[in-house]
Amino acid sequence: MKKTIKRKVASRGTQKRVEGLAAKVAKVDSKHVRSDLPAFSAGDTVRVHVRIKEGEKERIQVYEGLVIARRNAAGGKSFIVRKVSHGVGVERIFAESSPKVAKVEIVQVGKVRRAKLYYIRGLEGRAAKIEREVETLAAAEASAAAKSAKSAKSASAKA
């Protein structure tokens, strides 16, 4: 059953536009998109809680590693997490809409300038580390003092 929408075109009068397959797929995909997962990107270290079924029992296993890539195609959203286990690099692809992914926690936020970090595969040791945004205690105190001074100044200006 095709849905038709009539619209007026200057040269040819009325023209029928048929709702295409892409629009139908987008409608179906929008139902499967999860909103409970946090916003994370490549370079972040995440802890993925995965549901594993062993016989009759179901348990949750934690997989912690670096997000090296994300695919953001509506219902087909997925991300690749890489970790080094016993000296061997292990990568897993997780579908965001999958019920096997119980939850995702962000452990550390990375500071990278690439969307895909496939170059990490060829690096070892310290070279494979991602730069982090670290706020020292002195910097945190200074920013808190600046915020309080700014709010006090704006309060006195209003009065």
Q: Helices and strands: which structural class?
A: alpha+beta
Average pLDDT across residues?
83
Report the major sheet. 5 strands, antiparallel
Gyration radius, rounded: 24 Å
Descriptive report:
Strand 5 (78-85) and strand 6 form a beta hairpin. The model has no long low-confidence stretch (mean pLDDT 83). The longest helix is centred in the last third of the chain and has 22 residues, at 137-158. Helices cover 21% and strands 38% of the residues. It has 159 residues and is of the alpha+beta class. The protein has a single domain, classed as SH3 type barrels. It is extended and about 70 Å long.
What tags apply to this protein structure?
about 40% strand, about 20% helix, alpha+beta, two-stranded antiparallel ribbon, single chain, SH3 type barrels, 2 helices, about 160 residues, extended
Short overview:
By secondary structure, the chain is α+β, with helices and mostly antiparallel strands. The protein has one domain (33-152): SH3 type barrels (Roll), CATH 2.30.30.790. The protein has 2 helices and 7 strands; from the N terminus they run ββαβββββα.
Set down the secondary structure blueprint:
Blueprint: E1 4-9, E2 13-18, H1 21-32, E3 45-54, E4 57-71, E5 78-85, E6 88-95, E7 101-108, H2 137-158
